Every structure is written in C-alpha cells, then in structure tokens.
Amino acid sequence: MDTVLAGLINGNAYALVALGLSLVIGVTGIINFAQGSLFAVGAMVGWFVTTSLGLPLWLAAVAAMVVTALLGWVINRVAVKPFAGKAPIASVLATIAIMIILDATAELIFGPEIRPMASGLPTASFQLLGLRINAIDMVILCTSVVLMAGLASFLRWTRFGRAIRATSQDREAAAQMGVPINRVQSGAFMIASALGGLAGVLVAAYFTTISPTQGFTVGLAGLAAATLGGLGSLLGAVIGGLLLGVVEALGVATFGDSARQVITFGVLLGCLWLRPHGLLGSRSVKREPLTGTFFSAARKITIPPWAVAALVVAGALPIIPGLFSGYVVGVGVQIITFALAALSMTILGGQAGQLSLGQAGAVALGAYALAIMTKSAGVPFLVALLLAGIFGAVVMTVLATPSWRLSGHYPAIATLATGALIAAVAQVWDPVTGGGAGISLIPLPSVFGVQLDSNTMLYALGFVLLLTVCWLVRRWSNSHLGLYWRAIREDETAARSAGVPTPQYKSLAFGLSGFIAGIAGGFWAGQYGYINATIFNPLMSFQIVIIAVLGGMLSPFGAILGSIVMVGGLELFRFSSSGRLLVYGVVLLLLIHFRPQGLWTDTGTWSRLKQRFTRRSTAEAVSTHEHEGALA
Amino acid sequence: MPSDLLLDARNLNVHYGHFHALQDVSYTIAPGEIVSLLGGNACGKSTTMKTLLQLVPLTSGEIIFDGASTASESTADVVSRGIASVPEARRVFPEMTIEDNLLVGAHTRRDGRAAIRRDVAAQFDLFPRLAERRTQVAGTMSGGEQQMLAFARALMSRPKLICMDEPTMGLAPKIVDQVLDTIQRINRELGISVFMVEQNAELALSIAHRAYVLVNGVVTLSGGANELIRDPRIREAYLGQKAA
Asked: Does the keyword Membrane feature in the UniProt annotation (chain B) (predicted)?
C-alpha cells in the first residue's frame, strides 16, 4: 500500500503535466514538448525561493506558477502562434527547440548537479487504517485535488473557461461567435504552463532535491499519461497520470528502479495497441502532424549532373590523407553518421509522409546488433553491418505494424514510445546489452582485411556508405514504391480507394527506414568502439527528425545539408556543452521560422534566380520544377 | 452614403494568393430586410460572409455597418456591434450543453450576468425544443435541432444583423420549411435583418426581399426577389427550367 501511495504522488505530478499538455492539445492541436521543461523551471524557482531566499513553500509555488505562466505566454508567441495555418510539425519542432533552449539555459544558470531543497514542510506522519501517512503526502495530494477541482470549475462555469472549451471543440465557429481565439490560446498556454510549474515545485518539495535534467523524463511521462487518458481529455489526463504513477511504482517495487522507463513506455505502447484513442479519448485530434505545407509549398531543388559530380568530388576530399586535420575529418564522420540516420527519415517522412519520433530506437538496434556480432561472434564488419540494417528493419516493422490503426497524433507518439522502449530495454537487459555499462571494445571496422584505424579511413567508409544509401533512397523513390508512398503522403484515403494497400506500404517504408537507421547505428558502433543505452535517447530521435526536416525531406541532399548545418555547424560551439545546446535550440527556432520547408527545397526564389541567370523560357523552367518525382 | 442602410459593402476585393476570389463585390442591406446571396459552389459566397465577420482580410473595399467602417475592427468588435452568424453546417459546439452553447454566443456581451440569463430564457421561449434539452450536449441532437440551436446562439449576442451560411443545407424537406419559418419569425418578430448565403435559389427567394447572384467572385445580377424568381437567367441556372 505504501508503494501505491508513493505511486499516487508521482502520478499526481504526471497528471498535472498531462493536464497542461491536454489543455494545449485541445486548443491548438499541438503537443507542447516544452511542458516537461516548465516542470523543471518550476522546481528551480521553488528551490530558489525556499532554499536561497528562505521563504515559505506556498510563496515558492506562487512564484513558480507566475514564472512558468509567463514562459507559457512566450512559448505561444514564438513557437505556436507564428505557425498557425502551417504544418503542425513546424510548431512541434519549435516546441522541441524551446525545450532544448529552456533546459540548456537552466543548466547554464543552475549547473548540472542535483541540489538539496528545503521544503519547510512538516515531516510528521500518522497512522490511518494501518497505513503510515506522511503529512507531506497529504499536503501534495490535497493541493492537487483542490487545483484540479478548481480547473474543472473554471472551465465549466466561467466565461473564459467556456471560451476555452468552445475554441477546442470548434475553433472557427468560436471565432465567428466573437470569441477572441488568440487570447484564449494565450490563456490556455499560460494555465497549462502554470500547472507544469506547480507540479515541479510540489515534486521538488516531496523529494527535497532538484535536478535540471528531470524535466525531460517527467515531460515524456506526462505525454505518456496524457496519451493513456486520451489526448485532449482532461479527466483522461488525470486518470492516465495516476494510473501510470501507480503502475510504475508497483513495477519499480518489483523489478527495481532501472525498469521505470521500460514500464512507462511499455504501458503506453500496449495501451495504444489495445485502445487506439486512449482510455477516455473518443474523438481523435484530426490534424495529421506531417502532411501539409511542408510539402505543398515547396519544390525540390534539382541540380544538373555535373553539379552532383562536383559535390561528390568535394565530399571525397577529406579522404586524401593530410589535407584536413584529424579533428576536421572526425567531424566529417559525425556528419556522415547523422546524415545516414536522417536519410531514414527522408524515406519515411519525405516519401511516405509518416513522422517518426523514435528513429534512435532503430539506430540503437543496428548499433547493438553490430557490436554483439563483431565482438562476440567475430562476424566480419561488412556482413555484420548488412545484418544490423536487416535487424533494424525487421524489428521496426514488427513494432510499428500495430501503430497503423492509429490516426492523428497517435502514430507519432507510438513511434516515440517504440524508440524510447528500445533504449530502455537496452538499459536493463544486462546479459545481452551490458546494461548501463554498455558494450565497450567493439572491434574497429575492417574491410577486405584492412583495419580502418584512422578518421580518414572511417570517413572513406562512411562516404561510400552514404553514397550507397543515397543511391538506394533515389532508387526506391523513383520506383513504384515511391509513387505509392507519395500517394499515401498526399491523401491516404484516396490512395486506399485507388487500391494501394496502405498499411503494407507504410510498414515497408518503416522497414526500409529501419534498415537505413540500422546501418547508421552499425557505423556508429564501429567507429566509436563503445555504445551505451543513454546515447540513443529520444533527444537523438528528435535530432534525426530535425536534421531531415530542416535539411529538406524531398531529396537525399537535404539530409546531408541538414547534418552539415546542425551537426557540423554546431561543432563551432564545442567549448561549452550547455552553451552549445542553447545555440542549437536558437538556430533550430530560427530555421523553422525562416526555412520551414527545409534548406534543400525550393519555394520559388531558386527557380526565379535560375530563370534569370539561364534565360530559359518560362515554360521550360516551370516544367523542370513541376515534379519532384525525379530526384536530383 | 444613404443613412437608412444597415450595411453598405462597397467594391470588396479578396485575393487568396494569386486567386481573385471576390471582384468588386458591392451589396447593401436595409434595416429589417432579408437579403440573399445566391451562387454555386466555390463562387465566393462564404468568403463574402467571412469578410463581413472580419475573418478574411479585404485587399480593397470597405464595409460600413450601422454607420461606421469595420476596417479596423476585430471579429469580436463587429459581433459586439451587432453582426451575428450562423456558420455553414451549423457548427454547434458538440460536447457542450445547449445552455453553454448559448452562453458562448453571448461571449462579447458586457451587460451583466442577469441580462444574459434573461436572454437564455428568451431563447428557450422561442425554441421550446431547446428548453427540454438544456443540459444535454449539443452533438446528440438532430440536424434540425442543431440548426435551431445555431439560430438561438446567434441571437444571444443581441444582433442587428444575422449572417447565415446555407442554413438549410443537409436538412430534410420538412425541417427546411421549419427553418425558413424561423428565419422569417426572427426577421419579423424581432426586427433583425438577415443576410442569407444560399445555393438553393428557389428556397432563398421564397423568403428574401432582395437577392444578389454571385458567379466566380462577380455579382452578375441583383434585384427584388419577385423579379429575380421570374428572371429567365435565374430559372435556367438555378431552377433547371429552360428559358421560354
């Protein structure tokens, strides 16, 4: 019973975070990935007020809610409102950018260490029906109950509350009734954020410690809770949060703390498979996360074959020994690794229009498969690499298949859960994956008897892999596969009506993308000689999506260009790790603002320029850009 | 401008990108009038209504409502000045109760809770079917009942003019008659002007005083309902009868 009570306390925090998420999803249709960061900000404000200033906890709670509410207003202003009417993925990526910025700023200000917090709450406990109940448990549970009841009455009985409900049920009709939907959206964001901030203070007071990285984990758990309950359902968010908290607590009591993530994401995935719209979600959020203006407004930039050849030659330059320093070539290997991983999204997102927030899972599968095969079984590197790709393809296909029944936001969340689950399993499955310690001393890649023991040689291998995968992506896109995928991307119902077996082709896209990601993972394991589960966390999945989307998903060059900018460009800020993340977040936000369709895609400027310089007839120029079917 | 007009829309132009959706559209509505805007699919009917509600920006032109230009006003401003709307396909808030739907209709009002409560009661008098179901959620009602709710919701803002976007769309013929009756009652008993966007010319002209015909964003015909219903061009285009 003590375990259940502890679970309820944790679940309570998840419920508050999930409530905020669901409120925002209702009003805007956007998953706010920064919600967990607001939780962390709340905890830090709470620490500052109680521990540094020595003020009482209630004041800390108020301060945290004010600060996070203001941040919520800012988030809406910079990450959601500017993208109204554009593809929702723009907002989703923008909230990921905000999350990165907030977390990095917090780490810059507060440092990475865990701090003790003086909550000032009574530590007394009493017996009730044979249970030992701490006063602080009661304080936290009561606060939450009062708060949730308050929120429910606010939405039910007040003018602004009704306006929020009306806006989330039918935004356009609400606007026609004279409801100021922009103000409603701001208000919903501020309330949702304050809930997250308050949850942060409460949890910090309960555990009497704060850590700047807890926001990310809690954010994911909150998303899991909101999904369990049914996205957009507020009652569902509370039930989902409490349920997740209790199941987690029971699981942790049985299997140990390391199993926490396996349970969270296992429960989430299982629930999505059994009840596709959550426990209480009757009505799915209809907006598809990855269709729309990202594609329709943009055209692929096509470049002539001689330019492709020139780029290939330029890309091959680092292979010449001594031309660049070992460090620069090392960065080049990094760029290639991420470009390979992002190419898996080029197939899945750019062709089939499916968003995956779990590609790191496929990368992990490939990395572990290669590590185990080459280290324990002595399989030659190239064979192991191919098998790693196939392993990634098979497992991802199997895990992804049940998700095809889902619609709206749910498939993306299912992929997020799949990716996180794979990493979590790798973290606990000691005998096979080495658990937390990971696998070290993976043999260096050797190809046809040559051991690749320098950055230059690794670069050469990576470069050949990259060219091969680009060629594969191009072949698949130009075949009937690409045709069917694009049909699914543009209009899935129409594709199905035309006789395309859409679930099979989506699975195939997922499988082939798993193959490419697996190869990227194998290359990763081979070059570092060491892997552990924390490398392949959801942040890596986000990174892969960011590179693919911002590079431009219509052409394989997009993934490479994205990787050069987002991986290579940020090497310049290597001197400080949180500073680098901060810059990363800001660059990401700016890119989404100014090049939402990706760098390697055309919105018209390019064709106009090209027309001006080549003086070709308009008709000819237009026909060149009309179809994206033929790749560069 | 003649001061006896409730609404005077002059030379409205709207562009969606390169597409010229409304081209120099002008129309007027006098107090107490039912004016219909007729046209087929995608001819700019709904766009015209949205410009009136400030939901679509004008490229040029001006709308004068009740003596003042709406140019710098928000949707909330024009609603509180007296333009209410019944959206296409009714669009009631499906998971809210009848009562809450009505209260959202009164969102822009600032004259106190008691006055709003009185008006809710007044709607229930006008539409007894709604009174029976005040605590039921709107999504469970039939199409005809939802249409009544949409009218009642529009009346909650105490409008001088109600814009209706195809109020008879998708309803059974018997219900259509009820809807037309209701529109006439709102017009006669409450003295509210009606701007009705319709595809069905025969229905619209049976209750309208005047009408405009919109074809591909251009007003091609206008006049009294009695003249238009006899106009061979209308008969041919909308009533499926060959011009004699």
From this structure: no
Q: What tens digit of pLDDT does each residue of A258-313 get?
A: 788 888 898 888 888 887 776 666 554 444 443 333 443 456 666 777 877 778 87
Please report the pLDDT score of residue A144 as a whole number.
85
Closest chain A C-alpha to B85 CA, distance in angstroms: 7
Q: What is this model's ipTM?
A: 0.90
Contact A177 B100 (CB under 8 A): no
Q: CATH number for the B7-93+159-238 domain, one of 2.40.128.590, 3.40.50.300, 3.40.50.2300, 3.30.200.20?
A: 3.40.50.300
For the whole model, what pTM was predicted?
0.84
- Residue A153, chain B, CB below 8 Å: the answer is no
Q: Is A618 on the interface with B (CB under 8 A)?
A: no
DSSP for chain B, please give it. --TT-SEEEEEEEEEETTEEEEEEEEEEE-TT-EEEEE--TTSSHHHHHHHHTTSS--SEEEEEETTEE-TT--HHHHHHHTEEEE-TT----TTSBHHHHHHHHTTT--S-HHHHHHHHHHHHHH-HHHHHTTTSBGGGS-HHHHHHHHHHHHHTT--SEEEEESTTTT--HHHHHHHHHHHHHHHHHH--EEEEEES-HHHHHHH-SEEEEEETTEEEEEEEHHHHHH-HHHHHHHS-----
Is A617 part of a structural domain of the chain?
no
At A242, which amino acid appears?
L
At CA A148, angle to CA A240 and CA A43, rounded to 5? 80
A119-156 tens-digit pLDDT = 666 666 677 666 677 777 788 888 888 988 999 999 99
Predicted confidence (pLDDT) at residue A204 exceeds the cutoff of 60:
yes
Q: Six-digit token pair at B14?
A: 């709207």
Convert A176-204 to b/e letters by CB count within 10 Å (16 or more is b). Answer: bbbbbbeebbbbbbbbbbbbbbbbbbbbb
* Rounded Cα distance, B105 and B55, in Å: 17
Q: Do the Cβ atoms of B75 and A174 come within 8 Å? A: no
Helix (H) or strand (E) holding A323: none
Q: Is residue A613 part of a domain?
A: no
A265 and A301: one domain?
no
The neighbour count for residue A501, using CB atoms within 10 Å, is 12
User: How far is residue A71's CA from residue A66's CA, in Å, rounded to a whole number?
Assistant: 9
Contact A163 B103 (CB under 8 A): no
Closest Cα in chain A to B85: A176
More confident residue, A51 or B11: B11
Interface contact A166, partner B, CB < 8 A: yes
Query: For every residue of A268-300, which 3-state class applies, written as one string?
Result: HHHHHHHCCCCCCCCCCCCCCCCCCHHHHCCEE
Is residue A374 within 8 A of residue A443, CB to CB? The reply is yes
Test A178 with B108 for CB contact under 8 angstroms.
yes
Residue A91 token pair? 């907002």
| Cβ contact, residue pair B91, A173, below 8 Å | yes
Residue A284, domain member (yes or no): no
- Check CB contact of A173 with chain B, cutoff 8 Å: yes
Domain of residue A564 covers 295-608
Counting beta carbons within 10 angstroms of the beta carbon of residue A479, is it exposed (0 to 12), middle (13 to 18) or buried (19 or more)?
exposed
Is A354 a member of any domain?
A: yes
Mean pLDDT, chain A, integer: 83
The 10 Å CB-count burial string (b at 16+, else e) for A296-321 is: eebbbbbeeeeeeeeeeeebeebbee
Residue A7's CATH number: 1.10.3470
Closest to A72 measured CA to CA, from A114, A117, A21: A21
Q: What percent of chain A has pLDDT over 70?
A: 87
- Ordered by start, the domain boundaries in chain B are 7-93+159-238
Q: B13-56: per-residue pLDDT in tens?
A: 999 988 999 999 999 999 999 999 998 878 888 899 999 999 99
